[in-house]
# Entry
Amino acid sequence: MSGTVRLGGMALGNGVLVHGPTHWSCAVRTGDGRLQLASGEKAIRSADVRSPLLRGPARVAEVFSLLPVLRRALPEAELPFLEPRSLGAMAGTMLAARTLRGSGLSVVAQELAGALLALAPAAVALRGTEIAAYHGAEHIAIGSYEHGEPRPREHERCGSHVLGPLLGSAIIGNVLAARAGRTARGRSAARIAAAVGSVAVATEVFAWMLRHPHHPLARALAWPGHQLQARLLTAEPTRAQLEVAEAALAECLRLETVA
# Structure
């Protein structure tokens, strides 16, 4: 991967968002079959953040900061988590998580169940839609560029691989937060700190996994992500869907090269 631009991506309901260190590009297929493209410069750049504590949260903020910009630049883009059924799943997840906190389960059991429930919105958003196929197209386009050869729809740097480290760090952080706060306000502050800390820890662990892909621990931590990609998060794209991903990739690389 030497000499290549470090890229990330996101599958949409009708297209693909690709982003590099300084720019982003999105291509979608409209209902009448046209391919539309939008691109621009990033307002938040996580590549400039050097602090291990802030790197992970900055990457999350970077991606989410692109969404309102994308909505304005390309109204035809179908953001997966704005669909009614996805919003309903997220509301149901929040309600279930609150119910768990009032149950008689141990703190560890509550946090583990809550972490697993957090996967529900993604499962609902992907099931029976084109998002999984566009996710596969995103991985194929970016992976083939990075490796210089045709690649499968699973990608070693997919965010799903953060799931293992994130689950572990979130459970540990929330267990400590529940025991640290003596008041409701104190527990809330401790949970916020635990959430930020778990993202930071998971990001650094994931970076270590990428540097040591054959280490037994790295393989074990990556296993949940591999299973999710293979069974739920991706599907084989059509040629038309792959064309959309390649258009987004080409435009993002053009902007990164010019910058």
